[in-house]
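Teaching assistant here, posting this on the class forum so everyone can see the example we discussed in section. The complex has four components, and the goal was to see what a joint structure prediction looks like when all of them are supplied at once.
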Amino acid sequence: MRKTSVTSYDVAKAAGVSQSAVSRAFSPGASIAEKTRQRVLDAARELGYQPNAIARSMSTARQEPSQKSGMVGIVVTRLEDPFFAHAIANFSRHLQARGWHMLLFTVDSSAEVDEALNSLMQYRIDGVIILSAILSDHMAQVCRAQGTPVMLYNRDTKGLEVSAVGIANHEGGRLAADILLEAGHERIAFVGGDAGDETSREREAGFVQRLAEAGLTPFQRESGDYTFVSGREAGLRLFARHGRPDAVFCASDVMALGILHAARFDLGLRVPLDFSLIGFDDIPAAAWPGHQLTTIRQPIRRMIREAVSILAEAMEAPGEPPHTRLFPGTLILRDTVRGMGTASLSPDGQ
Amino acid sequence: MRKTSVTSYDVAKAAGVSQSAVSRAFSPGASIAEKTRQRVLDAARELGYQPNAIARSMSTARQEPSQKSGMVGIVVTRLEDPFFAHAIANFSRHLQARGWHMLLFTVDSSAEVDEALNSLMQYRIDGVIILSAILSDHMAQVCRAQGTPVMLYNRDTKGLEVSAVGIANHEGGRLAADILLEAGHERIAFVGGDAGDETSREREAGFVQRLAEAGLTPFQRESGDYTFVSGREAGLRLFARHGRPDAVFCASDVMALGILHAARFDLGLRVPLDFSLIGFDDIPAAAWPGHQLTTIRQPIRRMIREAVSILAEAMEAPGEPPHTRLFPGTLILRDTVRGMGTASLSPDGQ
DNA sequence: TCTGTATATGAATGCGCATTCATTAGCATG
DNA sequence: CATGCTAATGAATGCGCATTCATATACAGA
């Protein structure tokens, strides 16, 4: 394991050709005789040669439209969250299928995004996907200046010159209100993320708007940090007071499940007999037999396919204006809304 | 956004120094006057200069012990699985804290690991972590030849010259059997991953061994693919037959929760009254109020810290022999084993 | 056989940086 | 003031590859 790895020169020598020929043998579409290519490939196999991607991207740095590093940066918060874990898994598959690698950076808050981006950009990533966080105005300009396309997933562009794919949060909030209203509820609470969270605010806004149209205002309001534990705590607070809500819309399934468990198992309440509950996202656990959580589904497979597709286009044709695409959420009726669902009459675990 | 980014030459010109000086200004410990360094840093800030990590690693390729690319490869299967999502999140934090970036590659089966490694190694990663999968003998040698340390997480080395961090599966299996035996069970079933899965086999072996010591053999055996759905199906099969087991040890919490939900909500069984259940891993959902799953905990924070630490050492001092570290699992008594637990008398959701 | 065109090939070059080597400046001592 | 030393600096170099440019070769048509 002494000296470094095999280079194209070694292969060239072994195959009796020039280094250029070796490079051509590994470049699809290059001008090289089939016979020569075979000879090179054989020698390469013999020596265990693997082109050095780092050197390649150094070299291609000159050419304009070429793939630069082959890496896409990913900035993500809360990777533990099933919602993000699924997203990353999906992104990974799509990106890999198109020949890109993922350079992953996790951050603890939106405040760290710029720093993460800086760090990532030193690797000359060909593009970057930011999940549920937003970059600064300044950093957006830096990215543009570097020609690095940015894709915001699950976040609004807020006027920045970047692409975005997300869910129609406002509409989703209205949808949730619709069904709760239709079920005849009147004391409807909302549980969201912290006040700074755009996504949660949009869902709340749509929800509140629809309630207002029915002459109602939210009965109560709690918030958490998108974890099960914080949902559980919010649930405990919600039902500790005197006048209880008779329905809850929660801006995230994970927290909604926290509320559900708190209500059923900490407090002994019955859902949907004592109150109705609706979540957002439709994570897998929402469909578990013991949960059967009614929720607003995000079509994440389609969303991610679209996000990768838009980003790929931007990476291949730099200079194009950014695209934004919003997907509608779908109501998934299960068993946590009174009178509405697939099995409202069956036992719900109480 | 025309020509490419700012280089060290641009900064040199702006600061009125040579390119070497710029490089030194960014290299801790280099011989440069403080005054000069400040001048360079000012100019760099002015121009928005960021050192090019790709070029840097090209350049440092010559020096022996130096950090090469600053990237660590990660190969993972089933990123959707909460167990892995947590692991990746943890790895990410530790690696970042030490200044490394993660180049992530997801694979669908162990068969693809070699291919993934090849792909990753083209980026001259400084090391690689493989989660719950194993590389081939041949590829292990290639990694050694390239001086790329390999860390197997959650997998045995099987004699390969690589490092590993994992849980004592055999002991864990025994532990599970211990508690079930102590609770007085006699018709004890096992649910594992598919037959090819090492982890599952080891847990089963320990479990079966301990049962044998008590004069018992497993009452029944089912397997799944580590998803909730497959656990649920296994549960359905388990209790569809005539003679039911009175206890189940499941090699993974995710599947155990599938069994739990199937039993309670599909079949109306009571846990632990009708049967006891014990899982493995201690994922967060195991502790949810409605689950309270008794399980064998993996100390994943410590395990991951240790894995990163071992890998870091190997990356910094190449040529050192690999290390393997096995952690013991801990029994977490909750409410799914009859007569043993924190609240065996409280309602369990039935 | 000669010319013209298409195709293959090798030599040379540069991507952006860290480092080595040679030189110079700065400073203390005799 | 000369000498010896250290610290700071710039010029030059190469990491491994893709590409350009200039040749060389093959082959068709006249």
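For the discussion questions: Chain B has three domains: 8-51, 71-167+300-327, 169-298. The longest helix of chain B spans residues 300-316. Think about how each of these relates to the inputs above.
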